[in-house]
Specification:
single chain, mainly alpha, 22 helices, 72% helix
């Protein structure tokens, strides 16, 4: 195991480019594949790319806020104490790796945005408390829990087909989450990953000679909260340092959240997670001045998301408008039978996800192909839908798109953690594949 990890780490350190260069390379790869396997010419492929380029602007802003609000919340005194107390329960590097994996799995199963942020923040806190723990493995372990999100209660595909009016309703009707998220086969896969991933991550711990640690002082957020004598404050400075203003606007947000959960139950989406993080951050930082200082500090890590997500939207435009995604899905389906269909659907979804790293977007692209084939082969529709869902989640482990928020929080590069993630990809892929073959 350690020899494999060492090999993958060396390969990633040597050959994996910066995530921005990765998305540029993917752009050219999809462009060439579109020319080869679809009827689109060079000019049409560029058109598809440009037309899709700004298609993720809303989502990009949501992801920026996931990073910024999560970072702001984590830098507050009360949150630091809570994470610090939990981190203090880890008594050894191995224990730290196991705990952060479990926390990330639980958080990602509840809500994918919540899991992305909480896992990375908790890993940073553990790195401050636990001596001689490999920081790269700690962050990779925190990110590994994200693989479970599409089998959890925020999974976009199962929630879509359970919603009245979804685009495939005429074909498959409404499929309740009892047949997808809470089905026996899905829960078995979830439980297997809960048992396997903490153990796998623990076994990947490098030798003392190869362990990369981080100075805990470097993980302290650099927020300057300069005190000003009350008597020397201008009226504007009094407002900036007013606890009352923060309390009042914070209470506005909390009252709305009570209303939302009373009306909708414990139904989390990305907007609600951001709303919760934002207003807790305002309350926990006590004054507008402290809150804004934390925001300025947090925004520094958002540059990767801002500049890279439009390029992924362009790739999605080429994949969907040219029909390339459907070509890939059809290729896997053509070699499937009733028994292997869920497995090959899962594998095709994993491949397509590298180019279309969006759960809802990928389902929109693959659903017409997968559902028609599932009906023709008399395969369970819920299982076919979850095969797409799990494929989408699976290759996120080696897709820098989703790792960007965690990497920004951790202050690492993709190549620092991807060696570990490759091995997690292999193990989780085997578990999920067996689940779709035999459950």
């Amino acid at each position: 195991m350690k020899a494999l990890v060492s090999f993958f780490n060396r390969v990633m350190q040597r050959y994996l480019p910066d995530p921005f260069l990765f998305v540029i390379i993917l752009t050219f790869v999809v462009f060439i594949l579109g020319l080869i396997f679809t009827d689109s010419g060079p000019y049409q492929m560029v058109q598809h790319w440009g037309n899709g380029f700004w298609g993720l602007l809303v989502f990009t802003m949501q992801m920026v806020l996931v990073l910024v609000t999560g970072h702001v919340l984590a830098s507050s005194k009360i949150f630091k104490k809570g994470l610090g107390a939990l981190a203090s329960t880890a008594k050894s590097p191995g224990h730290a790796v196991i705990i952060v994996t479990i926390v990330s799995l639980i958080a990602s199963w509840i809500n994918w945005g919540f899991g992305l942020v909480i896992g990375a923040l908790f890993a940073k806190e553990l790195a401050k408390k636990v001596k001689n723990v490999d920081y790269r493995l700690l962050i990779a372990s925190a990110y590994s829990g994200f693989v479970i999100w599409h089998g959890g209660i925020s999974g976009s595909t199962p929630l879509t087909i359970a919603t009245e009016g979804h685009f495939s309703q005429d074909l498959i009707g409404i499929i309740p989450t009892s047949e997808t998220i809470f089905s026996g086969f899905n829960l078995a896969i979830v439980i297997a990953l809960f048992l396997a991933l903490p153990l796998v991550n623990r076994l990947m711990m490098p030798s003392k000679e190869e362990t990369v640690t981080v100075d805990p002082s470097l993980l302290v957020d650099d927020i300057q909260a300069g005190a000003i004598e009350k008597g020397a404050m201008t009226p504007a400075e009094r407002l900036e340092n007013s606890r009352i203003l923060s309390l009042l606007i914070g209470l506005f947000g909390i009252i709305f959240l009570f209303y939302y959960f009373a009306q909708n139950g414990f139904k989390l989406n990305l907007d609600i997670v951001n709303f919760l993080f934002l207003f807790l951050g305002i309350l926990f930082h006590e004054t507008p001045k402290h809150f804004l200082e934390a925001v300025i500090n947090a925004v520094k890590g958002a540059s990767g998301i801002i500049i890279q997500f439009p390029f992924y939207a362009g790739i999605i435009g080429m994949m969907t408008a040219s029909g390339l995604a459907a070509v890939i899905a059809n290729g896997f389906i053509s070699i499937s039978n009733e028994f292997t269909f869920p497995l090959f659907t899962f594998l095709s979804a994993g491949l397509i996800n590298i180019f279309i790293p969006s759960g809802g977007g990928q389902w929109a692209v693959q659903a017409p192909v997968v559902l028609d084939a599932a009906i023709a082969l008399d395969v369970s529709i819920p299982k076919a839908a979850m095969a797409v869902a799990w494929g989408d989640a699976w290759t996120n482990l080696i897709q820098p798109f989703w790792a960007l928020p965690a990497l920004a929080i951790a202050g690492l590069k993709a190549k620092d953690i991807m060696g570990y993630c490759v091995l997690t990809l292999i193990v989780s892929g085997v578990i999920i594949s067996l689940g779709f073959l035999f459950l």
